[in-house]
Batch of 4 targets.
Target 1
Amino acid sequence: MPLKLSATEPSITRVWPRWLAADTRSRGTIWSVGVVCAVARLTRVTRLRTAHQPSAPVLCASGLRKVYGEGRSARVLLDEVALAVAPGELVAVVGRSGSGKSTLLHLLGGLDHPDAGRVEVGGRPVTGASERELSALRRESIGFVFQFFHLLPELDGEANVLLPARLPGAPAGADRRGRALIDRLGLRSVARLAPHQLSGGEQQRFAIARALVADPLLVLADEPIGNLDAAAGSVVLDLLRSSADEGRAVVMVTHQAEATARADRVLRLEHGRLFPTHASGAAITDHAEPAPRPVSE
Ligand SMILES: Nc1ncnc2c1ncn2[C@@H]1O[C@H](COP(=O)(O)OP(=O)(O)OP(=O)(O)O)[C@@H](O)[C@H]1O
Ligand SMILES: [Mg+2]
């Protein structure tokens, strides 16, 4: 069966070539996320270093706004979204279908541009960066698990995973790490199959291995256990949890309570804003998002 590509997700032909080459409406919290990010930026400037400081947030986003359409048909999808994620943190984002979760992850990962606001990853600007700078940043610092996987159809599962390990700037040992991830995710017996020969859950696990192979500072995972049974889902959640425990920052979009249970923080995206939440089964729903707010509201 052909891969289902979301109309709202960047197409594979756009995503991979580009890749290769707070959380609350309260002004106080938005302000404090801004201060955390600004202090981190200042610290880096005063130390005249460009490398990421271990104690600074890995991800800093503030004032993010995304509007689709124009004039009377304009819709505010994200408004004043602020989020700072520290090394070692696993943050889950929940919200109704259509609330903008994938859009938010795309903005955080530099795959789409906000209409306002800024994003930094590891102290490097995502917003305002050139395509060349963005490519390097994504390759070196961000692992992205797409909601609809986006494996390259002409490569088998293992080759998809090892591709980032063979790009310039890949860390030493990435190849070995990729093979270990394939084993850990139970994919060895299907490693030589092409994406169209794999089940949805197998494709999802290859996509997760690919996101982690280059040992990124930041992992952005869009519904990473959406297609998995309980056992495979638990292996993936263990992997994301240990990725965070080893010092990475992880942001995971999910509809599943077993995933939010592993997170340090759970944020709910609703009407364009992020709210802290104590997720329970009742807080996570698949129902469609009600009508978005018009720009004039
Ligand atoms: N390029 C676009 N042009 C117009 N509308 C768009 C565009 N991209 C996304 N949208 C709209 O933004 C809304 C949010 O889409 P998004 O994919 O971010 O939702 P989501 O929260 O990830 O949903 P799901 O849980 O179903 O994956 C949808 O109503 C979608 O139609
Ligand atoms: Mg989505």
Target 2
Amino acid sequence: MFIDHAKGHYLPDLRRILERGWLHPGSVVVADNIKVPGAPAYHAYLREREGRGWRTVEHDTHVEYQPKTPDLVLESTYLGGRETGWNPAAAGPETGSLPGLGATWWRIWKFIMKAPAW
Ligand SMILES: C[S@@+](CC[C@H](N)C(=O)[O-])C[C@H]1O[C@@H](n2cnc3c(N)ncnc32)[C@H](O)[C@@H]1O
């Protein structure tokens, strides 16, 4: 599964997919733009579960068209096990951070970084 949509939705959507039983042990989830614009809650979630439900390889890369701007891609293998203590109905996207601000800021960021003066 490739995750590459609204950054603040990475974690709640992953958890919804887990709740529905769509992943099985050995399923691989690849997520782009972990640093820029960033998906810190998703990153923290997988770090907390390293070796217990998930095994993640972090791939250093750069933002698309921006070789000088570091980014991170996560390649996470699901090891199995059930999530507990999470209410999908109450879960929303991340807020209070750049990812939570959504696609508009991401477009502005990309526009700035592509400006010739930069
Ligand atoms: C960076 S593009 C992904 C490109 C895709 N990985 C590809 O290679 O074609 C982001 C996509 O996420 C979609 N998107 C944005 N917010 C979303 C959301 N909340 N739920 C689902 N998709 C969303 C956008 O419409 C856009 O098509």
Target 3
Amino acid sequence: MVKYKEKKRLYDIRYRKRNREKIIKEKKEYYKKNSKKILKHHKKYYLKNKEEINRKNKEYREKNKDRIKKRNKEYREKNKDKIKKHHKKYYQNNKEKINARTKKYHQENREKFTKLNRLWANKNKDKIKKYEQNYKDKRTKEELSEIRNKRYQKNKIKELARQKARHYIKIPKNQLCEDCGIELATERHHEDYSKPLEVDLLCKKCNMKRERKYD
Ligand SMILES: [Zn+2]
């Protein structure tokens, strides 16, 4: 009996080795055909054994940290294009949600990001230079001048509105900030630069807060 069992085991191993491709293919087909059923089953099983599974997974991850890291890295390098494509598709489908979330996160962690950006920029000066050169090389002269012109026009409207407001709107001496009501107002804030004389009188801090909203 023991002999038979051992024989069978060896035979199975050999069989699997020889027919590896075939078995994988069959399995794949089976999964494809029954994916809903299998997923349902997995889900049920997971819900039933949630805590144990999570604990085991955690243990496994902690034990094999380096191995997992290496494997992930290898996978990412091997499937660069695939991953990129997948991310792109996901982004296209969830654009608004993602952008809103990113914006909120940035606003809430602004100081952290400014610091990180500065650090990164200091470390990667050459990279930035190269990127800027590449950006210029890729665009025609007309495109570049149009971009510059747009930026100039935008700044010009801003600057003119500010000048006009500075000239026509005097801030009363004891004027309190319209937002916080605590600090003295020192700045004229435009919600809309096309209406240069419509300003809110704010303290420096609150003005900065408002400007951030429109980044
Ligand atoms: Zn204020």
Target 4
Amino acid sequence: MHCSMWLAPGRTCLDIDAIRIAYRRYARLYDFYFGALFQPGRKAVVERMNCRPGEQVLEVGVGTGLSLPLYPEEALVTGVDISPDMLRRAQARKIRGGLGQVIDLRLMDAENMDFDDNSFDKVVAMYVASVVPRPARLVDEMRRVCRPDGELFIVNHFHSSNPVAGGIENLLAPLSQVMGFRPDFGLGTFIHETGLEVLDTRPVNLFGYWTLLRVGNNKSERADLGNALGQRPKAAASGKHPAHALYRKA
Ligand SMILES: C[S@@+](CC[C@H](N)C(=O)[O-])C[C@H]1O[C@@H](n2cnc3c(N)ncnc32)[C@H](O)[C@@H]1O
């Protein structure tokens, strides 16, 4: 599905190059601006994930790895990101912090992952859903690599129902390419288009302006929908692309 499905008519959508450029720009100061501000949401989602010893966890759009120290030592965490500049910082954080729970950090497009089907127990996207070019494609990939009875977790800002905040977000929407995310990203449309089976939600961060979603991995229902629409299921991937081995476990 094209990202214009998520936007008001005439709005620009994001593409991978625009995202890489935006996050090359953000990388150096990302932790300063978005570290403390978004950390309550990161803590809330990792707590909600309730990772058990030996569970395989995938974080898509791991960024500079601000969440990585929050995972319990017994978890097995893999992180992927499309921005080499952001991922380098995650790798440095892992080494600096001796984060043994982080088993792999890879340069990878979360909309088209190299992991085999059903590889992870839990898959999480923190502040990523409104950044990727095709959010429904992201969710489909999260489902595919998560085992059938696993869980997905998404924390994101969704378009505000408050007329003033929502109006400002609408005004900012044409700047999506420059900002690297879509301020007018709507929760209702997101749930409708992805077919998410939302188990629970809670507001997080400042003024509860962001939302944490816990989602059941209803991949069979989604596959039925895909088949009905004539889409072919993606074959299991090999994971052998050389660029993706850049940040493997040190
Ligand atoms: C707002 S940042 C969030 C970073 C991190 N999750 C955090 O909590 O701070 C969005 C991240 O998503 C990454 N990203 C955007 N599109 C992506 C894609 N298609 N595949 C993988 N990562 C992507 C960006 O490079 C960036 O690091």
